[in-house]
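Dear colleague,

Thank you for sharing your sequence with our group. We've completed the structure prediction you requested, and as agreed, I am returning the results in plain text so they can be pasted directly into your records. Please verify that the sequence below matches your submission; if there's any discrepancy, let me know and we will rerun it promptly.
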Amino acid sequence: MSNDNPNPERMLTIPVKKTYPVDLYRPLRDLVARKYSETDAQKVESVLETLNKCRSDMVERGDLSLPMQRGCLIHYFKCLCMVEPLFTAISSDADSDAIMFFWYDAVDPDYIRVDGVSSQRNSIQLEKAAVLFNLGAVCSQIGASCDRTALGRHLAIETFNAAANFFKLWKVFAKDVSANLFAESLHCLFSAQALELNLQQHLHNNNNSSALQKHRCAVSFKSVSEHYRRAYDLIQRDSVSSFDRTWIDHLYQKVKFFEEEALQRASSILPKSQLPKTFSFDDDAESVTGKLVNGICRRMYQWIPKREGIYLDLILSEYSPFKIMEGGKMVANPWDMPPPYPTNFAIPSSSSSTHILAFPFKKSKPLNLYESLRNFFVLKYSESVANRAERFLEMLNKLRSEMLRDDLSLPMRRDCLIRYLKWLCMIEPFFPMTTSPNPPIFVWYNAFFPKIKSSQHNIHLEKASVLFNLGALGSHIAHSCDVTTIQGRRIAIDALHDASYWFLILTHEAEKASATDLSISSAQILRQLITAQIAYLECEFPHSHSHRGGSSLPNYPVSLLYRKIYDLMTFGPLAEKLVQSSIPQFIESKMKTCHVQTGPFDVTELFLSGYCEAQSLLGEGCQTPYLDFLSEVGHYKIMDGILLPILEVVTSALKEMNLSEDTVIKRQRTV
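Please find the predicted structure tokens below.
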């Protein structure tokens, strides 16, 4: 970028809001015991304790690093969403003590409003808004603290985008006009900074000699200038927020520079007719660690919080800090407690369910990925690089072996498959290994006709097979449930939603993998069959999906859904392959209905609904995989340029090197 760019390394940040300590546990627990029952209070006691701990740590602990502050705030926001219905009740309860929230202005900390915006009685909306603001502020500070290596720049881009999205979400909860203006200006500012860093990365990696490169560069300058202009204009109009004068001067210089550059490059913008349909990613990683990180983050849509499988994770996953335990008790593990998390919920099971069809799993031959990949790193890079990637490769190999075990329980197998898929995404940028004399050969057998096998060097065959087995596993969990019970039906429905999600992802991967049972049409038929089974369960057991906010399924009679699938399987392109299986016979048996009575709900339903809302609000844009690499409770961590996948190793390394997360951010270096 031109030297005329003012302060290219300076990135603006926003400070966090400050507040007073507030005890939330006692008044909320007393309310639940009084309004519902002591039994209900015991069921949600863990959530209330964690809620209180999160707020206490957020307010009183000054030793928390930026990544730890982010983790605490996200955990607290989820707890707030879970208890939100209680605040409606406490406001109308004469026997409850008022809960007062006070929040100081972030820009002018000596000023606290008393007009009902920053000081309110029993206002959980004020509390949620302040937490979202602080999440945006913390992300802005993480982004500004990153170095300018390729990996550090990627992290800064993602965190500035996350900050922008948190401020956009904060605007939804902010009630007064001045707060809306402030939120919009911050959203534009941090979006502009993310775009500027992305432009810097593009200019660093490309010579910009081709017409397409010049086009992309011109478009980027135009976009950056527009965002800085919008942020500058909004801040100029904001007469309430006390912005530092240096901010205004800095933004004015940015606007002037980028508008001039955009004007000079405008002639390089190509008409749409001359643009390719897709743009390839720049191979801009400076290190093996950078490529591993980019591998998973380029597919971040697979890992964002999603509605599918939420209830399944709460009950079965050892990696969800929020749990539903035996007897319906809700548990919120502390925000700073690393996984795995204890679970003791037994699936209400039936020895043979006639309601759900379980798809067969794909089988594979054992494979030593460690040896072939390590040899590749030695040949392509060096022995030193291979040594630094060794722990990652060991975990990758271990996960592949674990996922093939038939003795694993369904929940453990699901966790293992998901973790292995993430590791595959990280290693994908190194494929195809055309320079390796001994690349790994993936061998997978057809799920419906086990005598047919596919043997390929193609990593997409491996990924597609794992996705297929994740979908099949959801059908097995649903098949094992006793759908005559409320919990069994709910698990079955959520497991089928989870299966449908993985088969959807499979449709994106299938065109890159050559196997009959992994084709796009096969995945689509299996998704339609799952849709029909969900519709069947929700039709026959209507209360089973109350926590999802209603069904999103097509409004067709269930029998017609099954008829459509039956016709596709018996007369469509896959008829010859699938009609011999048990699926058509199962569909024929489902062209009829039955009815089962359902039961009442308790206070945990309110908490579950709030948790689903939090997952939805904190979805795409607010939670990025890049930040998870700095988390104390993740599956992997970047430590001094090395990707460490095992939590015990990370903890040991932290102690040995005496490094904090903030130091790690500053010390990201190439391998």
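Summary note from our side: The first strand starts at residue 100 and ends at 102.

Kind regards,
the structure core
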